[in-house]
Amino acid sequence: MRKISLKLKLTLLYTFFMALLTCVALAILFSLSTREVLSSTQSRLEQRVQDSVENISLRNGEIRIDSDFYSVSHDVYLALYDSGMYLLYGRVPHGFGVQPEIADGEVRTIRDGGRDWYVYDMSYRLSDDQTVYIRGITSITDAEESFTVTLRFALILLPLMVLATAVIGYRFTRRTLAPVRRITSTVREIRADADLSRRIGLTEGGRKQKDEIYTLAGTFDEMLSELEEVFKREQQFTSDASHELRTPVSVILAQCDAMLSDGTLPEERREQVTLIRRKAKQMSDMISQLLFLSRADQGRQPLHRERLDLSELTEMIIEDQQMIADAKGRGIRIEGKSDPDLYANVDETLYIRLLANLISNAVRYSHDGGTVEVTVRRNGNEIIGSVRDFGVGISGEALPHIWERFYRADAARTEGGCSGLGLSMVKWIAEAHGGGASVESTEGKGSVFTFHFPAEE
Question: How wide is the angle at C-alpha 401 spanned by C-alphas 400 and 403, nearest 5°?
Answer without folding.
Answer: 105
